[in-house]
């Protein structure tokens, strides 16, 4: 760094070299410094990436641990009948059930297909699978239905905007 900061004429005089040779030397030194800086930044970025991976792995392992508990409950529920005699077989995946149980607004976390399955599911079966009362399961189904309707409305609006936009493109 010090050699780069020195005036080329002074350095040429000290080294008893021509100014063009000194300038080439300074350019080479600057390239080496730039490469070292890029390598340092790359290492930092890689370290950040590895830290993010570790955090993601720990989060995923926590989610997996929390999902094992609902699965154990589901196995018990799936093999028997509920107290009302309704078979507690559900079309919902264990992951979907974990989202329904674990999120404060699960309807915002599910894709549209899962929302449809929740809405179509029998309320008693859903309540039994989630270990909830029937009113809470009904409220969840209503929230999922509203979210599904909102998404459908957004898609219809988008299609309308596209058709209007296509119509304007054909005008002179």
Automatic annotation (TrEMBL):
Keywords: Coiled coil. It comes from the Eukaryota. Gene3D superfamilies: C-terminal domain of DFF45/ICAD (DFF-C domain) (1.10.1490.10). Residues 15-56 form a coiled coil. Residues 2-119 form the DNA fragmentation factor 45kDa middle domain. This is DFFA factor. It comes from Nothocercus julius. The gene is Dffa.
């Amino acid at each position: 760094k010090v050699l780069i900061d020195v005036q080329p004429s002074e350095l040429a005089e000290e080294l008893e070299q021509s100014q063009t040779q000194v300038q080439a030397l300074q350019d080479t030194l600057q390239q080496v410094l730039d490469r070292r800086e890029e390598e340092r930044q790359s290492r930092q970025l890689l370290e950040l990436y590895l830290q993010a991976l570790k955090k993601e792995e720990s989060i995923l392992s926590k989610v997996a641990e929390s999902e094992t508990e609902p699965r154990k409950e589901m196995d018990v529920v799936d093999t028997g009948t509920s107290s009302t005699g309704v078979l507690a077989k559900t079309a919902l995946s264990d992951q979907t059930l974990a989202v329904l149980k674990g999120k404060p607004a699960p309807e915002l976390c599910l894709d549209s297909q899962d929302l449809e399955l929740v809405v179509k599911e029998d309320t008693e079966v859903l309540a039994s699978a989630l270990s909830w009362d029937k009113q809470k399961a009904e409220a969840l189904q209503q929230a999922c239905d509203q979210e599904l309707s909102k998404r459908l409305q957004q898609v219809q609006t988008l299609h309308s905007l596209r058709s209007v936009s296509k119509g304007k493109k054909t005008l002179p």
